[in-house]
Specification:
This protein is mainly α. The protein is built from nine helices and four strands, in the order ααβααβααβαβαα. The protein has helices spanning 3-17, 21-33, 43-52, 59-69, 79-86, 92-105, 115-118, 132-143, 149-160, and strands at residues 40-41, 77-78, 112-114, 129-131. The protein has a two-stranded antiparallel ribbon with strand order 1-2. The chain has a two-stranded antiparallel ribbon with strand order 3-4. The protein is elongated. The termini are far apart.
Amino acid sequence: MDTVDVTVEKLRAQCLSRGASGIQGLARFFRRLDRDGNRRLDAGELQRGLAELGLVLDEAEAEGVCRRWDRDGSGTLDLEEFLRVLRPPMSQAREAVIAAAFTKLDRSGDGVVTVDDLRGVYSGCAHPKVTLAEFQDYYSGVSASVDTDEEFVAMVTSAWRL
């Protein structure tokens, strides 16, 4: 495991030790670290913030973490990038119920939910198509705020009438 992975695991462990409110607390923490108010963290802001949590990184390590977590190539981290990496992995039960909900939506069976699949069920103006990966990513965020698999599976099953 490299330095970035170790940092993620330590930060995730701190989040989980705070319970379901940990992710929300990290969002507040992110906003506090954003000293210039641009809604993004550069490597220096990230380095100072992790140090406050007892995770001391040198400049090169902080830049490496920032590069690894930066999905849009901006060189900085936005809140979504920051939180996405800290979400705990979903259990098989959660992944299975999400896949079942996606399969129900994907009427054509091509692995992509299109407006035609959703006609009469959903307005696709903002998002004309959704992939399974995007669907899973969305529910990964939801999953982070639900304590047990049983609650999560029941919620998704009820929402999608599975």
